[in-house]
Amino acid sequence: MEALHKLGIDFKVLIAQIINFGILFLILRHFLYRPILGALESRKKRIRESLEKAAEIEKKSVAAEEEYKNRILKANKEADEIIESARLAGEKTRKGILAKAEEEANSLREAAERGIAEERRSLYADLKRNSGKLAIFILTKILKQDLGEEFLAKSVDKALKEIEA
Protein backbone atom coordinates (compact mmCIF):
# COMPACT_ATOMS: atom_id res chain seq x y z
CA MET A 1 0.00 0.00 0.00
CA GLU A 2 2.75 2.26 0.69
CA ALA A 3 3.86 1.93 -2.88
CA LEU A 4 0.43 3.14 -3.95
CA HIS A 5 0.69 6.05 -1.58
CA LYS A 6 4.10 7.02 -2.98
CA LEU A 7 2.57 7.11 -6.42
CA GLY A 8 -0.05 9.54 -5.18
CA ILE A 9 -2.90 7.05 -5.10
CA ASP A 10 -5.11 7.11 -2.03
CA PHE A 11 -6.56 3.67 -1.30
CA LYS A 12 -9.84 5.01 0.11
CA VAL A 13 -10.39 7.28 -2.86
CA LEU A 14 -9.55 4.40 -5.21
CA ILE A 15 -12.15 2.16 -3.62
CA ALA A 16 -14.71 4.96 -3.68
CA GLN A 17 -13.95 5.54 -7.34
CA ILE A 18 -14.29 1.80 -8.08
CA ILE A 19 -17.65 1.72 -6.25
CA ASN A 20 -18.78 4.91 -8.05
CA PHE A 21 -17.68 3.42 -11.37
CA GLY A 22 -19.60 0.20 -10.61
CA ILE A 23 -22.74 2.15 -9.69
CA LEU A 24 -22.37 4.36 -12.78
CA PHE A 25 -21.81 1.24 -14.89
CA LEU A 26 -24.97 -0.41 -13.52
CA ILE A 27 -27.02 2.77 -13.98
CA LEU A 28 -25.72 3.34 -17.50
CA ARG A 29 -26.18 -0.32 -18.33
CA HIS A 30 -29.72 -0.32 -17.07
CA PHE A 31 -30.87 3.04 -18.45
CA LEU A 32 -28.65 3.59 -21.47
CA TYR A 33 -26.87 0.48 -22.69
CA ARG A 34 -29.87 -1.88 -22.78
CA PRO A 35 -32.21 0.63 -24.54
CA ILE A 36 -29.47 1.45 -27.05
CA LEU A 37 -28.85 -2.28 -27.61
CA GLY A 38 -32.61 -2.80 -27.94
CA ALA A 39 -32.85 0.04 -30.44
CA LEU A 40 -29.86 -1.33 -32.34
CA GLU A 41 -31.36 -4.83 -32.33
CA SER A 42 -34.72 -3.41 -33.45
CA ARG A 43 -33.01 -1.46 -36.24
CA LYS A 44 -30.95 -4.51 -37.19
CA LYS A 45 -34.15 -6.57 -37.32
CA ARG A 46 -35.91 -3.94 -39.49
CA ILE A 47 -32.93 -3.78 -41.84
CA ARG A 48 -32.82 -7.60 -42.07
CA GLU A 49 -36.59 -7.70 -42.76
CA SER A 50 -36.21 -4.95 -45.38
CA LEU A 51 -33.39 -6.87 -47.05
CA GLU A 52 -35.47 -10.05 -46.99
CA LYS A 53 -38.44 -8.19 -48.47
CA ALA A 54 -36.17 -6.64 -51.10
CA ALA A 55 -34.80 -10.10 -51.97
CA GLU A 56 -38.34 -11.49 -52.12
CA ILE A 57 -39.46 -8.58 -54.30
CA GLU A 58 -36.45 -9.11 -56.55
CA LYS A 59 -37.30 -12.82 -56.86
CA LYS A 60 -40.90 -11.91 -57.70
CA SER A 61 -39.66 -9.32 -60.17
CA VAL A 62 -37.40 -11.87 -61.87
CA ALA A 63 -40.27 -14.38 -61.92
CA ALA A 64 -42.66 -11.74 -63.31
CA GLU A 65 -40.09 -10.78 -65.95
CA GLU A 66 -39.69 -14.44 -66.94
CA GLU A 67 -43.45 -14.84 -67.11
CA TYR A 68 -43.67 -11.65 -69.19
CA LYS A 69 -41.01 -12.96 -71.58
CA ASN A 70 -42.80 -16.31 -71.83
CA ARG A 71 -46.11 -14.58 -72.54
CA ILE A 72 -44.48 -12.41 -75.20
CA LEU A 73 -42.89 -15.47 -76.81
CA LYS A 74 -46.20 -17.33 -76.66
CA ALA A 75 -48.06 -14.34 -78.15
CA ASN A 76 -45.45 -14.04 -80.92
CA LYS A 77 -45.75 -17.76 -81.64
CA GLU A 78 -49.54 -17.53 -81.77
CA ALA A 79 -49.30 -14.48 -84.03
CA ASP A 80 -46.92 -16.36 -86.34
CA GLU A 81 -49.33 -19.32 -86.41
CA ILE A 82 -52.26 -17.03 -87.22
CA ILE A 83 -50.28 -15.30 -89.95
CA GLU A 84 -49.19 -18.64 -91.42
CA SER A 85 -52.77 -19.93 -91.26
CA ALA A 86 -54.05 -16.79 -92.98
CA ARG A 87 -51.30 -17.05 -95.60
CA LEU A 88 -52.20 -20.69 -96.30
CA ALA A 89 -55.91 -19.84 -96.46
CA GLY A 90 -55.14 -16.94 -98.80
CA GLU A 91 -52.99 -19.18 -100.99
CA LYS A 92 -55.74 -21.81 -101.08
CA THR A 93 -58.33 -19.16 -101.96
CA ARG A 94 -56.04 -17.69 -104.62
CA LYS A 95 -55.53 -21.13 -106.20
CA GLY A 96 -59.28 -21.76 -106.09
CA ILE A 97 -60.02 -18.41 -107.75
CA LEU A 98 -57.34 -19.03 -110.39
CA ALA A 99 -58.70 -22.51 -111.11
CA LYS A 100 -62.25 -21.18 -111.35
CA ALA A 101 -61.15 -18.30 -113.60
CA GLU A 102 -59.21 -20.68 -115.82
CA GLU A 103 -62.20 -23.00 -116.00
CA GLU A 104 -64.51 -20.09 -116.89
CA ALA A 105 -62.01 -18.83 -119.49
CA ASN A 106 -61.82 -22.31 -121.03
CA SER A 107 -65.60 -22.62 -121.13
CA LEU A 108 -65.90 -19.12 -122.66
CA ARG A 109 -63.23 -19.97 -125.23
CA GLU A 110 -64.97 -23.25 -126.07
CA ALA A 111 -68.32 -21.45 -126.36
CA ALA A 112 -66.72 -18.80 -128.58
CA GLU A 113 -65.09 -21.48 -130.73
CA ARG A 114 -68.44 -23.27 -131.04
CA GLY A 115 -70.14 -19.97 -131.90
CA ILE A 116 -67.47 -19.15 -134.48
CA ALA A 117 -67.74 -22.63 -136.01
CA GLU A 118 -71.53 -22.34 -136.12
CA GLU A 119 -71.29 -18.87 -137.65
CA ARG A 120 -68.80 -20.18 -140.20
CA ARG A 121 -71.14 -23.04 -141.14
CA SER A 122 -74.06 -20.63 -141.35
CA LEU A 123 -72.10 -18.22 -143.52
CA TYR A 124 -70.89 -21.06 -145.73
CA ALA A 125 -74.48 -22.31 -146.11
CA ASP A 126 -75.65 -18.76 -146.92
CA LEU A 127 -72.81 -18.43 -149.41
CA LYS A 128 -73.82 -21.66 -151.10
CA ARG A 129 -77.43 -20.61 -151.23
CA ASN A 130 -76.68 -17.10 -152.41
CA SER A 131 -73.96 -18.11 -154.88
CA GLY A 132 -76.55 -20.12 -156.77
CA LYS A 133 -78.94 -17.19 -156.79
CA LEU A 134 -76.08 -14.92 -157.82
CA ALA A 135 -75.15 -17.18 -160.69
CA ILE A 136 -78.77 -17.29 -161.82
CA PHE A 137 -79.06 -13.54 -161.49
CA ILE A 138 -75.89 -12.96 -163.48
CA LEU A 139 -76.95 -15.45 -166.13
CA THR A 140 -80.35 -13.82 -166.40
CA LYS A 141 -78.75 -10.46 -166.94
CA ILE A 142 -76.36 -11.85 -169.53
CA LEU A 143 -79.01 -13.69 -171.43
CA LYS A 144 -81.24 -10.69 -171.66
CA GLN A 145 -78.51 -8.84 -173.49
CA ASP A 146 -76.44 -10.93 -175.84
CA LEU A 147 -74.09 -8.25 -176.98
CA GLY A 148 -70.59 -9.68 -176.79
CA GLU A 149 -67.61 -10.47 -174.59
CA GLU A 150 -66.97 -6.91 -173.51
CA PHE A 151 -70.57 -6.37 -172.63
CA LEU A 152 -70.57 -9.67 -170.74
CA ALA A 153 -67.62 -8.55 -168.56
CA LYS A 154 -69.30 -5.22 -167.94
CA SER A 155 -72.56 -6.94 -167.11
CA VAL A 156 -70.88 -9.28 -164.61
CA ASP A 157 -69.13 -6.35 -162.97
CA LYS A 158 -72.37 -4.37 -162.90
CA ALA A 159 -74.27 -7.28 -161.41
CA LEU A 160 -71.63 -7.77 -158.74
CA LYS A 161 -71.81 -4.09 -157.88
CA GLU A 162 -75.59 -4.30 -157.58
CA ILE A 163 -75.32 -7.32 -155.31
CA GLU A 164 -72.78 -5.62 -153.10
CA ALA A 165 -75.01 -2.56 -152.80
**Average pLDDT rating:** 86
Number of strands: 0
Separation, N- and C-terminal Cα atoms: 170 Å
Number of domains: 1
User: How helical, in percent, are the residues?
Assistant: over 70%
| Computed structural class | mainly alpha
Low-confidence stretches: none
Q: What value does the Rg take, in angstroms?
A: 63 Å
How much β-strand is present in the residues? under 5%
Name the shape in a single word.
rod-shaped
User: What kind of sheet is the major sheet?
Assistant: none
What is the tally of helical segments? 3
Instruction: Tell me the series of helices and strands, N- to C-terminal.
Output: HHH
List keywords for this structure.
165 residues; rod-shaped; mainly alpha
Topology overview:
Blueprint: H1 2-6, H2 11-144, H3 149-164
Helix pairs in contact: 2-3
What does this structure look like?
The chain is mostly helical and 165 residues long. The chain is built from three helices and no strands. α2 (11-144) runs antiparallel to α3 (149-164). The model has no long low-confidence stretch (mean pLDDT 86).
Describe this structure in a few short sentences.
With 165 residues, the protein is mostly helical. 94% of the residues lie in helices and 0% in strands.
